[in-house]
Amino acid sequence: MPYCLYVRKSRADAEAEARGEGETLTRHINALLELAKRRQLNVTKIYREIVSGDTIAARPIAQQLLNEVGQGMWDGVLVMEVERLARGDTIDQGIVAQTFKFSGTRIITPIKDYDPNDEFDEEYFEFGLFMSRREYKTINRRLQRGRLASVKEGKWLGSCAPYGYERVKLANDKGCTLAPYPPEAEIVTLIFSLYTQGEQQNDGTFRRLGVSLIVRKLNELRIRPRVSEHWSPATIRDILINPVYIGKIRWNWRHGVKKMVDGQVREFRPRAPIEDCILVDGLHPAIVDNETFALAQEYMANNPRQPVPARQKVMNPLAGLVICAKCGRRMTRRPYGGRQPETLMCKDTACDNISSALHLVEARILDALRNWLAEYKLQLGEDSSAANNKVVAAANEKALQQLTAEHATLCKQLDNIYDLLEQGIYTTDQFLDRSRKLSERISQNEHDAAVLNKSLAADKMREISRRQLIPKVEHVLEVYSSLPSAKAKNDMLKEVLEKVVYIKTSDVRKGGSPDNFQITIYPKLPKTD
């Protein structure tokens, strides 16, 4: 089997490049190719990683390499040192060590070869990963200390400036600060003014606007935010509570927190209380005065966001299922405290998709699911695909035989180029170029064969899944009305539906019918790939 190269650029390499020591990946590739030539190793692929991530999850090229190593595609992997493979936590180190061990894949470095089947090499390899992790944590602590020191000096560390500012390099000093960007700074001032003072009425009085009304006002004025097409309440709320607009630097407000969810490590960025944040005077000028900002915080405190437990309780049987056909956002339930029926609405104030009574949409979805099931049963009953499947299967089998013969020919050609390299007919560059082309053809051949095999297996599984889907939908329709809670109904609908697309253009207040809306359901059909 062939060998491959894995090269990765670390933070130290980036610093070396800044000092003019040359491009790191090129130097490492040349060194490893020279090692492969000296050892007469068949190198057919080079993996280049240009991110310096803490975990395997942050390094897509490493994930691809480990996946192929786990499948036994490589006889060995050439790296400059074992630390390049993993410097994450003990879980990542264990994944790397076990992947190489169980597949029997060797690790070859300019200093030492690691045989995963050798007990002493295995211990040495695991020790190398452990030391690399310690080195990473040391570097990370030093970086975090430097970042914290910069924050306390009032510098801006974010890669993007908040709305209303632009990021500028400090003169005669390291780091960056913020400078007001006039077109956006005027909008920030307007937002705070509308929220704290309000909009002047015809009688000369001022009517203070809430967050949603400010969103509607800005969208009506065709004032666009920096990235999206229109404003949202969350964006306005974040602006109103951000102390950067009074010349402060806030740090650790959205500090990353890792949690174990369903056996996997997930990272969350919850909002921290202001007392848990680092708040210092920034080097940048303020856009809003302290009195206005303090008044905005007072108003925000009188209108707190809904507590987390209440938000997490499912009250909408269609939660997460119905998609707005106009803007693509998920539609939400709007209660009226018993004064009128709950409605299903698009929460984007700039979207003109008209809301409908929740119970009407729910009933329409059940009717659509019932009609779809009847048609689906009819299709399966009249399906004459059994004979067609046999024809397709025979064609796939024949194609697989041709691919197998082609694969043997390509492997023989690959063997021949090593003879040409040993005889001096091919230079190293010619050898690598020819090897790479043959490797690509072999990979394509193997990919085509895998696709055909997968297609044959998918046909069988699809038919089985189709037979299982019908009783599941029938069960939903049978027991739905007797389910005890909105969450139970929501969970059951999500078992059989991917999504529901909703649109309504006629307003009841203008003579439209309450049930004059359209939906399109997308059942969870068996996957074909």
Task: Describe the protein.
The protein is α/β, with parallel strands linked by helices. Among the domains are: about 5-150, 3-Layer(aba) Sandwich (Rossmann fold), CATH 3.40.50; about 165-305, Alpha-Beta Complex (Hect, E3 ligase catalytic domain fold), CATH 3.90.1750; about 385-460. It has 14 helices and 19 strands. It has helices spanning about 10-20, 25-40, 60-70, 90-105, 120-150, 180-195, 210-220, 235-240, 290-300, 310, 360-380, 385-420, 430-480, 485-495; strands spanning about 5-10, 45-50, 75-80, 105-110, 115, 165-170, 175-180, 200, 205, 250, 255-260, 265-270, 280, 320-325, 330-335, 345, 355, 495-505, 520-525. The strands form seven sheets. It has a five-stranded mixed β-sheet with strand order 2-1-3-4-5, sandwiched between helices. A three-stranded mixed β-sheet has the order 14-18-19. A three-stranded antiparallel β-sheet has the order 15-16-17. Helix 11 (about 360-380) crosses helix 13. The longest helix is centred in the C-terminal third of the chain and has 52 residues, at about 430-480. The chain is flat, with a radius of gyration of 31 Å.
- State the share of residues found in helices, binned by percent: 40-55%
Q: What is the rounded Rg?
A: 31 Å
DSSP helical segment count:
14
Going across the biggest sheet, name each strand in turn: 2-1-3-4-5
CATH superfamily of the domain at 3-150: Resolvase, N-terminal catalytic domain
Quickly name the level 1 CATH class of the domain at 3-150: Alpha Beta
Largest sheet: 5 strands, mixed
The name of the CATH architecture of the domain at 3-150 is 3-Layer(aba) Sandwich
What class, by secondary structure content? alpha/beta
Compute the separation of the termini in Å. Answer: 28 Å
The percent range for strand residues is 5-15%
